[in-house]
Specification:
Elements (H helix, E strand, L loop, with lengths): L1 H44 L1 H37 L3 H6 L8 E7 L5 H13 L7 E8 L3 H15 L5 E7 L10 H18 L7 E5 L5 E2 L3 H11 L6 E8 L9 H18 L11 E4 H6 L10 H12 L5 E10 L8 H16 L4 H9 L7 H28 L2 H9 L4 H28 L14 H7 L4 H22 L14
Parallel strand pairs: 1-2, 1-4, 2-3, 6-8
Antiparallel strand pairs: 4-7, 5-8, 6-7
Helix pairs in contact: 1-2, 1-12, 1-13, 1-14, 1-17, 2-8, 2-13, 2-14, 2-15, 4-5, 10-12, 11-17, 12-13, 13-17
């Protein structure tokens, strides 16, 4: 009888936990749709109120652009300064740097041999002793034959050039997992932990860099990372976030794809200047010992790159930060040659990033109740996550809808009014001031580009500048809409939840 009662109470508690978690999952999508619908209704019922609202919103948008531009310029100047630093000399001046090993984890799924080989070539180009680098190449059971064929070619070509190359195949159908980078990284992590134990390697002396398969580190990346790791004071309590550029195939990408990719870089640049609110994104590095302590990567989510930082933040009770690194890594844009196929690829990628909204319910459930983390610190990270996903899904759409609908309705329903008459002119002037900031960004973009191939016309530089007129378009169709779809899918749940969709690489 007592056992039956305890079982009932446990089931009741689990049900309450599930309901609470679902409320947190519903909240972001609900708020986004409530905002959009409410503003449309205001425009229809009280168009003059709608006009006042869009003027305030546009002013806020312009202030936001210029506010972020200040941080962007600050990070850009640090990036330009970092390019001139002799990181190798700095690394050599660090005590005991020879004791450390760099583990580079490369999860892959159905990428062609050339993509994998190019990454290994770039790792070889790094000005860092290769006998201090171990490469872990992880494939998937669903691609076993192709992967092992590629892995054997890689081992044959690069045998003896690194301290070691370790191959692993992530099994499918493991309970509690969803297929994707997170579960593959978990498998790589557990296999490498066994590897280090078997080879008597001290895991506290291992720095792991978790890269996408097409990540090309700057030749000085590991010199810079080693120096930052050994001089930051408490290296096991930091993740190390480099600047992410999308330059591998930038000269061959179409303008829409380039604008979206560069916008992502600029978003990261603004956050690198505000380390107190910085999350890890895409390729980054950390202490392998810390990774082991938190139980490796989460296996049941899509956006593992940010969640691993949040796990560390929660596990170490707030004693964990992200340290910006201005020596970059470069990745591919999602351009695969065909125009419409590339746009589809881009939408899928942004929607997957938008699925990062899944961190909000986890933070509410795990991070917020942790009383050992200072309230101000929790609030800062939670607000950054919540406000970021909310404004991403709503702000561009609100500017598009509210910039036209209330004025159109007011013209039809309200007698002559000075505000209605002048609103279009006022809105145009406000937004033009914002466009000045966007074109200032376009100018900075030239300093982030790699050297132009000789077979590409110099005319491309004009295209690179002019392409930023597409920013309002990309902001909506490759920003708000996929982000809103991701939040809506999380809100509905069930079969509409997103899995990990790999973007094709060439």
């Amino acid at each position: 009888m007592i056992k039956a009662l305890l079982k009932f109470l446990k089931l009741k508690e689990e049900k309450q936990d599930y309901i609470q978690f679902r409320i947190y999952e519903i909240f972001p999508g609900f708020m986004a749709w409530f905002t959009l619908i409410f503003c449309v209704l205001i425009s229809l019922i009280k168009p003059l109120w709608g006009i006042y609202f869009i003027i305030v919103l546009d002013v806020y948008w312009v202030i936001r652009i210029w506010y972020l531009f200040i941080f962007l310029v600050g990070s850009w100047m640090k990036y330009m300064k970092a390019k001139k630093v002799d990181w190798k000399s700095k690394r050599l001046n660090c005590n005991n740097w020879e004791d450390y090993i760099h583990l580079v984890a490369l999860p892959t799924y159905k990428e062609p041999y050339k993509v994998v080989k190019e990454t290994f070539d770039k790792l070889m180009d790094c000005e860092y002793p290769k006998d201090k680098m171990i490469i872990a190449l992880g494939g998937e059971e669903g691609d076993r034959e192709n992967f092992l064929n590629i892995a054997n070619q890689i081992k044959s070509e690069f045998y003896g050039k690194f301290k070691d190359i370790v191959i692993s195949v992530h099994p499918r159908g493991v309970s509690g997992e969803i297929p994707g980078k997170g579960s593959n990284m978990y498998h790589i992590g557990t296999q490498m932990y066994k590897y280090f134990l078997e080879n008597n390697i001290d895991i506290s002396k291992v720095i792991i860099s978790m890269f996408d398969i097409e990540t090309w580190p700057d030749s000085n990346y590991f010199n810079c990372l080693t120096y930052e790791y050994l001089t930051c004071g408490n290296p096991e309590r930091y993740s190390y976030q480099p600047l992410v550029l999308f330059n591998n195939n930038v000269w061959k990408s179409n303008p829409i794809i380039r604008v979206v990719a560069h916008s992502t870089t600029y978003w990261l640049l603004t956050d690198l200047s505000r380390a107190e609110r910085l999350f890890t994104f895409s390729s980054h590095s950390m202490s392998f010992k810390a990774l082991v302590e938190v139980g490796f990567h989460p296996r049941d989510i899509v956006t593992e790159d940010t969640r691993i930082f949040l796990h560390c933040l929660n596990y170490f009770n707030g004693n964990y930060r992200v340290r910006p690194i201005y020596t970059p890594v470069s990745m591919q844009t999602v351009d695969v040659g065909g125009f419409f196929e590339s746009l589809k690829n881009q939408y899928i990628q942004i929607r997957r990033w938008g699925w990062g909204v899944e961190h909000f319910p986890w933070m509410m459930k795990k991070l917020v109740p942790n009383k050992k983390i200072p309230f101000a610190q929790k609030f800062k990270y939670l607000f950054n996550q919540a406000e970021g996903t909310y404004s991403w899904a709503t702000l561009p759409l609100l500017i598009l809808i509210m910039g036209r609908l209330p004025i159109f309705i007011a013209d039809k329903t309200i007698h002559y009014n000075v505000m209605i008459h002048n609103a279009p002119i006022l809105l145009e002037r406000i937004m033009n001031f914002g466009l000045v900031g966007i074109f200032a960004v376009a100018f900075l973009n030239f300093f982030l580009l790699p050297k132009k191939p000789k077979n590409i016309s110099p005319f491309i530089y004009l295209v690179m500048f002019a392409q930023w007129v597409l920013f309002p378009f990309t902001m909506i169709f490759f920003g708000s809409i996929p982000a809103l779809e991701a939040q809506t899918r999380l809100m509905i749940g069930g079969k509409y939840r997103l899995g990990f969709q790999v973007t094709k690489k060439t």
